[in-house]
UniProtKB/TrEMBL annotation:
PANTHER family: SHORT CHAIN DEHYDROGENASE, SHORT-CHAIN DEHYDROGENASE/REDUCTASE SDR. Gene3D superfamilies: NAD(P)-binding Rossmann-like Domain (3.40.50.720). The lineage of its organism: Bacteria, Pseudomonadati, Pseudomonadota, Gammaproteobacteria, Vibrionales. It holds the Pfam family adh_short. This is Short chain dehydrogenase. GO terms for molecular function: oxidoreductase activity, acting on the CH-OH group of donors, NAD or NADP as acceptor.
Length: 231
């Protein structure tokens, strides 16, 4: 039987590359994005394979998350990838941080991953317990923060890391593994054209890391090459 993965923010960037990587590896992919009608690459893949289910989901809509989980009640999930992310406005710094934008970034980067984990807990807690992989960022690491600034994004990912730790403590007794992942500096809309690696390289590495996770790795922060990132 095919393994099942649900990926958020699946229409572009790292999310889209993860969709392709998991499809190529023979998984069934539940690809969530805000506007499936505009997701041309995903639509094209869906025309080619029955292993891709395209779903509409804005991760800040908690009711929609619950409805989707109810819709998928009978489908055991091997993997939930909380990939959707938002950097927020660029060019702000000490003295002009926009609190409304901060709340928006937190909704997407920090609160949504927990809401998805809570909603899909029944599907993850199956006979073969699943994995919750949250796309964090080195930028959220306290140790790596030597340059300051980036208050909104940094704090949202640092808080996400804290969410992952608690998920791990709460759910590992049931066999569910939770990890925070750093995808590398990736050439996407968020990463920009000067980034170091292609989305495909990141996705291939992340998939390898996730495939090789065991219980001892739960509650850790790993990059796309499997190296531990300092909190
Ligand atoms: P992109 O900006 O290229 O893509 C972001 C994705 O998140 C899009 O699919 C976007 O959908 C989706 N998204 C944003 N808001 C929502 C929402 N409310 N509901 C549903 N989906 C939403 O980012 P990347 O692919 O580069 O990043 C993927 C993840 O990796 C993010 O969590 C990011 O923080 C993290 N990361 C990326 C790095 C990089 O170098 N690129 C480095 C470190 C971490 P839409 O098209 O509808 O806007």
């Amino acid at each position: 039987m095919k393994k099942n993965v649900l990926i958020t923010g699946a229409n572009r960037g790292v999310g889209l590359a993860l969709v392709n990587a998991y499809l190529n590896a023979g998984w069934h992919v539940f690809a969530c994005c805000r506007q499936p009608d505009l997701a041309t690459e995903l639509q094209q893949r869906q025309n080619e394979t029955e292993a891709l289910t395209l779903l509409a989901l804005d991760v800040t809509d908690h009711q929609a998350i619950l409805s989707l989980s109810q819709q998928m009640a009978d489908i055991p999930l091997d993997l939930l990838i909380n990939n959707a992310g938002y950097y927020g406005p660029k060019g702000y710094g000490f003295g002009n941080t926009d609190a409304d934008e901060w709340r928006k970034v937190f909704e997407i980067n920090t609160i949504a991953p927990l809401k998805l984990a809570e909603a899909f807990y029944p599907q993850l807690k199956s006979e073969n317990p699943g994995i919750i992989a949250c796309m964090s960022s080195k930028v959220g690491s306290m140790t790596e923060n030597t340059s300051g600034g980036g208050y909104i994004y940094r704090s949202s990912k640092a808080a996400l890391n804290s969410v992952v730790k608690s998920l791990s403590n709460d759910l590992l007794p049931e066999g569910i593994i939770s990890v925070a992942l750093h995808p590398g500096w990736v050439q996407t809309e968020m990463g920009g054209p000067n980034a170091l690696i292609a989305p495909q390289t990141s996705a291939k590495g992340l998939m390898h890391v996730i495939n090789n996770l065991s219980k001892i790795d739960s509650g850790t922060f790993l990059d796309y090459q499997g190296k531990a990132v300092a909190w």
